[in-house]
Specification:
Elements lengths: L1 H11 L9 H6 L6 E3 L4 E3 L13 H19 L2 H9 L9 H4 L3 H13 L2 H8 L4 H12 L20 E11 L2 E10 L1 E3 L3 E5 L10 E5 L2 E9 L4 E8 L1 E3 L3 E5 L9 E5 L28 E7 L5 H14 L4 E4 L5 E5 L2 H15 L3 E3 L3 E2 L2 E4 L7 E4 L6 E8 L2 H8 L10 H9 L3 H4 L2 E5 L4 E5 L8 H9 L1 H13 L11 E9 L9 H17 L3 E15 L6 H6 L4 E7 L5 E9 L6 H8 L5 E11 L22 H12 L14 H12 L9 H5 L2
Parallel strand pairs: 22-23
Antiparallel strand pairs: 1-2, 3-4, 3-12, 4-11, 5-10, 6-7, 6-12, 8-9, 8-11, 13-15, 13-16, 13-17, 14-15, 18-24, 19-20, 20-23, 21-22, 24-26, 24-27, 25-26
Length: 681
């Protein structure tokens, strides 16, 4: 830090704090500050400097001495270097073994001897301790309401409950362990703790109990040649420390929260104790590139699956999906990411693996509103639920995917009224959010205030309806891909009076089937991921990059020159589906002078109608742009072992088919329709 350099100059000149002010000197080492050797003063303009280099004080006092140390270490012989270092104001004495070693070791030894640990200590002093830092972190890190005045916050070091945040898993000496920070309480070896996964509290089943088998603190043993990382074992550790916990990695894939309490007589954590704090899960770039794998020898499938579990712990930005056909799909952020992951998988599992061509993850959405309310009847014919689907506004979808909604439920209605212009009734009717997929469920029913029993029955089935909504959002009706940007409305519900007739086994599959049927009647669409590219290339070839991007359905949005160079940074957008091999093409076109950096930006609608069965797809021929949605749908359903045609008949009963056909004909007063017309639906 600047203050560290200021102290070094004081030490070299044997000055005390009474002669000069370290704080003022450190401030003058940055910005428009120029030092005059004649007057021994600092000025804000170089014109007032009569004698000296007329350079900024940062260059004169910090950069130039560093450059001189580097040049001496790189260009001088062993004897000359030793004499120069001994004649410095603060002599540096290096052993002959170091002087005869590599240049990297010499530079590291010189800088280490000259600077010591002053900068590191100054950096640590700026890190707040748990006694002061938990108040700010409590607002951004945890999913829980803030306690009232006078109540002890669970992140406070004085709290008796142990609260530990797990950031990632590490491979420590051949075994996986959790890298954690203890925010409150104490952790002991042999203590039984509760582990809340990244899906909690949305998924109440993501809770496990494990026993801590070992506690390690990372340390290092250093000498002149290298630094070796080691671990020191402890039996007990308190709040404020960063530790590595063993024995808790079995159910953790990304991040988690570990909750413990005072030990009872049996040295175990009381499993009935309600948790007080849940840390927000770590956010990663959406994994939009998909890779299907299988072992070369089917008998080695269990070995490959075990290797996949270990790989996913080391790569938290990826996840695994196993389809009903037995297909194992790994999702990653890009080609290089998956290539590195597959190399680690082959080394760890020692299995020969067949890899298919990489594809892209899709999303399903709707572009309109259901033509009518879809009535779903439970299998026992005793409950009827009416649902419609429509497109969710883009600002709300972005707020959901970025977790920008208030943590307190009572503040959500006011937030929707102020930020999105919703009315009071609609904002209070929100039942559930799907943050990951940007969808929500609304209760738009008209309650009967005189019938208390039906209101109680309706409240009793709310968890089942929400669970059915989450199940439907995980797999859409088009090609069993997750939903994105959908608003599901519950219009009416006729429930059986007996609780046994409206159980979750009756409600959940009915909600899922009805939501899918309403989506098929709301102009369903497919969404594909689009990446934002930053291409650093010579300015002379910037205009020539546009045809390369246009061939891949991409476009340029601008370019900006890089200062003091002949390069420019080009900003462009390209669908991920057409990005495979793009980086190689750009490097070949620029003869290795261009560099591409890509980042996921947004989901875009695929051109065309995915349900247009009149489109004929020719094998080994590129499809027109207007047919891409149909092509993506057919190929995805073929790969998953599904029928190529999407039919709404399997979601509706005979009576609903008859009503829908009447609504499409626009003649509600027409008589009965024969079943042949109904089958035409």
């Amino acid at each position: 830090t600047l203050k560290s350099f200021a102290r070094m100059y004081f030490a070299d000149r044997q000055l005390s704090a009474d002669d000069l002010d370290v704080e003022k000197f450190s401030v003058r080492l940055w910005g428009d500050s120029f030092y005059c050797q004649e007057s021994r003063k600092f000025y804000k303009s170089s014109k007032k400097v009569l004698q000296g280099s007329k350079q900024r004080s940062f260059i004169e006092f910090i950069l130039e001495p560093l450059y001189k140390l580097y040049s001496v270490a790189l260009g001088e012989e062993q004897n000359t270097l030793d004499k120069i270092l001994r004649n410095l104001p603060t002599p540096i004495l290096l052993p002959k073994k170091v002087l005869r070693s590599s240049t990297k070791t010499i530079v590291r030894s010189i800088l280490g001897s000259y600077f010591g640990s002053l900068g590191f200590v100054d950096m640590l002093l700026k890190v707040p301790s748990p006694s002061f830092g938990w108040k700010k972190k409590a607002k951004t890190l945890i999913n829980m309401p803030v306690p009232h005045d006078g109540e002890l916050h669970p992140l406070s070091p004085e709290s008796k409950t142990a609260v530990v945040q797990v950031s990632k898993l590490l491979d420590v000496q051949g075994k996986f362990a959790a890298l954690c920070r203890i925010y409150s309480g104490q952790i002991k070896v042999g203590q039984r703790v509760k582990i809340l996964g990244s899906a909690y509290p949305a998924d109440l089943e993501d809770v496990t109990f494990n026993t801590i088998t070992a506690i390690h603190v990372p340390t290092h043993n250093s000498n002149e040649e290298r630094v070796k990382l080691s671990y020191r074992s402890l039996e007990e550790i308190s709040a404020g420390n960063v530790v590595i916990l063993h024995g808790v990695d079995a159910t953790i894939t990304q991040s988690a929260t570990i909750v413990g309490s005072n030990l009872n007589s049996s040295n175990e954590y009381d499993e009935d104790t309600e948790e007080q704090c849940v840390f927000r899960p770590l956010r990663f770039t959406p994994a939009v590139v998909k890779l299907s794998i299988e072992p070369l020898r089917p008998a080695e499938l269990p070995k490959m699956v075990q290797g996949l579990r270990s790989v996913l712990k080391c790569y938290p930005g990826s996840h695994l999906v196993v389809h009903d056909t037995g297909e194992h799909c790994i999702y990653g952020t890009g080609e290089v990411y998956l290539d590195t992951l597959m190399q680690f998988l082959r080394q760890y599992s020692d299995v020969e693996i067949k890899v298919a061509e990489p594809t892209v993850a899709l999303r399903e959405s709707v572009a309109g509103t259901s033509v009518m309310g879809i009535v779903g009847e439970t299998p026992n014919k005793r409950n009827k639920i009416t649902i419609t689907s429509s497109q969710l506004e883009a600002p709300i979808t972005n707020a959901l995917t970025l977790y920008q909604l208030p943590k307190k439920e009572e503040k959500i209605p006011g937030h929707f009224m102020q930020e999105f212009g919703w009315d009071l009734l609609s904002s209070r009717s929100i039942w559930a959010f799907d943050y990951e997929r940007g969808s929500l469920l609304l209760d738009d029913t008209i309650p009967d205030f005189d019938d208390v029993t039906s209101k109680e029955n309706f409240a009793a089935v709310k968890p089942s309806i929400v669970q059915g909504f989450r199940w439907a959002s995980k797999e859409g009706p088009l090609c069993e891909e997750p939903l994105h940007g959908c608003k599901v409305k519950l219009l009416d519900a006729v429930l059986a009076p007996a609780a046994i007739h409206r159980s979750s086994g009756q409600i959940i599959p009915t909600i899922r089937r009805t939501i899918h049927a309403s989506m098929l009647l709301a102009n369903p669409t497919l969404l594909e991921p689009v990446n934002k590219l930053y291409i650093t290339a010579p300015t002379s070839i910037v205009d020539s990059l546009s045809p390369l991007l246009t061939k891949r359905r991409g476009f340029m949005t601008g370019d900006s020159p890089v200062g003091a160079s002949t390069y420019s940074v080009v900003t462009a957008y390209v669908p991920v589906m057409d990005m495979f091999g793009l980086e190689t093409d750009i490097r070949m076109f620029s003869q290795g002078q261009a560099m591409v950096h890509s980042l996921f930006e947004y989901w875009n609608e695929v051109p065309g109608d995915p349900l247009d069965s009149s489109i004929v797809l020719h094998p080994l021929e590129p499809s027109p742009v207007q047919c891409l949605a149909r092509e993506f749908l057919v190929k995805t359903r073929r790969r998953k072992g599904l029928n190529e045609e999407v039919s709404i008949d399997k979601y509706l009963d005979e009576e609903m088919k008859r009503q829908l056909l009447l609504a499409q004909r626009g003649d509600m007063g027409e008589g009965d329709i024969d079943m042949e017309d109904g089958e035409m639906l």
